[in-house]
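Backbone shape codes:
===
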Amino acid sequence: MFIRLDFESDEPIYTQLIHQIIEGIAKKNLSPGDPLPSVRAMAADIGINLHTVNKAYQHLKQEGFILIHRQKGVVIHPDGVAKADAAYMEQVKKKLRPFVAESICRQVSEEEFLKQCQELFNEFNEEGEKK
């Protein structure tokens, strides 16, 4: 698994790690039941503090992307990720709101905004279909 972190980014490292693992699942590079490195191993592999990895793993566990077993270690949730429900869709709307507002301020058309969303959505679907 390739983790690409931008240490110069304003985005926190743990957030980047969360996003990279979720992208790995979306692109089917990571499948249900696949193991992830332990907190210590991941931290050592990518050269970050183990507390940063632990924070990312705890968030992923809370959101249902991974399971953490004392004996088995860290694995992608064997049952897969739960399907979107009304609460999740409300969360999506809340997260998109600032992007839509900023796009309008920057005079991005609705068509262009939706085109960008569609391209990203297709990128994940195409990657997943190749696996």
